[in-house]
Amino acid sequence: MSINTDLGLIKNDDWLSSSLRWHLSVKSGEGIENLSIEPFKTTDKRIPVRGANRIIGYSDKSNVDSSTISIGRVGASGVVHLNEEPSWITDNSLIIHKFNSKIFDKKFLRYILEQLNLSQYSTSTAQPLITGETIKRRKIAFPDILTQKK
């Protein structure tokens, strides 16, 4: 077993383990005016608007322009999505807006986040809620990047 304290990494055989806080950044999505959203895709409004659990409509604006992971923050907390196109992620979701691509394959990271069952960490208020800190606190084990891609 070897340890790299700068990145919080522990290596055991061929797998690493670490807290997610060392490898990704999380931010909240943004609100969008209801008048900016159409319920169906149109010629002008083709960009998906994603709430906590699903696409809630379409807009001509995006707040993420590349493939990214979003996680339901309010209500359907913990639901993980891989957004493969420009999208508008609402403030009911969190966005993994940066991650260490030398350590994680994006699709593998999505899978790991799904397996964490993040909803179990939501606060027990009238509207279940998780925070970016909730995600970053999770400690996971993972193989090298080439194995993840397989």
What characteristics describe this protein?
150 residues; alpha+beta; Adenine-n6-DNA-methyltransferase TaqI, Chain A, domain 2; four-stranded antiparallel beta sheet; 3 helices; 32% strand; globular
What this model shows, in words?
There is one protein chain. This protein has one domain: Alpha-Beta Complex (Adenine-n6-DNA-methyltransferase TaqI, Chain A, domain 2). The protein has three helices and eleven strands. The protein is α+β, with helices and mostly antiparallel strands and 150 residues long.
Q: What is the CATH topology classification name?
A: Adenine-n6-DNA-methyltransferase TaqI, Chain A, domain 2
Structural class: alpha+beta
Helix content: 10-25%
Q: Which second-level CATH architecture applies?
A: Alpha-Beta Complex
Would you tell me the overall average pLDDT?
88
* CATH evolutionary superfamily: DNA methylase specificity domains
Outline, from the CA principal axes?
globular
Run of helices and strands = EEEEEEEEEEHHEH
Largest sheet: 4 strands, antiparallel
Which ranges are low-confidence, i.e. pLDDT below 50, for 5 or more consecutive residues?
none
Count the beta strands. Answer: 11
In total, the number of domains comes to 1
How would you summarize the topology of this molecule?
Elements: E1 2-4, E2 9-12, E3 15-19, E4 24-28, E5 47-50, E6 55-59, E7 68-72, E8 80-83, E9 88-89, E10 93-99, H1 106-115, H2 132-136, E11 139-142, H3 145-149
Parallel strand pairs: 5-9
Antiparallel strand pairs: 1-2, 2-3, 3-11, 4-10, 5-6, 7-8, 7-10
